[in-house]
Design goal:
single chain; mainly beta; four-stranded antiparallel beta sheet
């Protein structure tokens, strides 16, 4: 799919320099993202949900600048959608939005006060500057900790999950670390992800 940003769409079996001036990297599914020191985001790989650029489909075999975003300070990606954080703490997203995990708009503005952001399969979570953990999107497994789950449990507006949070991570479940050192989780535990 061109995840490595090289012109040859085959496996690369030797170390190959892809870019320079990079401050953050994110690989997810069949795509890769690079955050450069100048605040630009570059993406390559599968673009079937417009995770990289507005094309409607197709793979990007060369890193392409995501022109909608400049001055980015953090990136987070899943196989289906992408989140970026601006210096003002705005959380922006693009790509698959079937469960409302990106809010609405193109590119969607998900939040105004994000400090740390991460995305799971079909939901987004972020920690604000005041330590509040919010989430939006798919809640099928109870990923957002609202006490509901199953079909129709999606949240298309942000919901407060917890306070006093310093770190969070998302997949089919949501894990978060509170400032008192306690680890909390919600969502799928079908394979023991939550350790319960």
């Amino acid at each position: 799919f061109g995840q490595l940003g090289t012109p040859i769409p085959t496996n690369v079996r030797t170390l190959t320099q892809i870019s320079d001036g990079v401050t953050q990297i994110q690989a997810a599914g069949y795509l890769s993202f690079i955050l450069k020191a100048d605040g630009t985001v570059w993406g390559s790989g599968q673009n079937n949900q417009d995770q990289i650029v507005d094309t409607g489909d197709g793979d990007w075999r060369y890193p392409s600048a995501m022109l909608a975003w400049t001055g980015v300070t953090e990136i987070s990606a899943s196989a289906w959608f992408t989140l970026v954080r601006t210096p003002l703490g705005e959380l922006m997203g693009r790509g698959y939005n079937f469960s409302g995990q990106l809010g609405y708009g193109a590119p969607a503005k998900v939040s105004d006060r994000s400090l740390i952001a991460t995305n799971g399969g079909n939901h987004s979570i972020w920690v604000t500057t005041t330590g509040d953990l919010y989430g939006i999107g798919n809640n099928f497994f109870g990923n957002l900790g609202t006490g509901t789950s199953g079909s129709g449990a999606e949240q298309t507006v942000p919901v407060l999950i917890a306070n006093g949070v310093i770190k969070a991570s998302a997949g089919d479940c949501t894990l978060f670390l509170k400032s008192d050192g306690s680890l909390w989780g919600t969502g799928s535990n079908q394979r023991g992800q939550l350790g319960l």
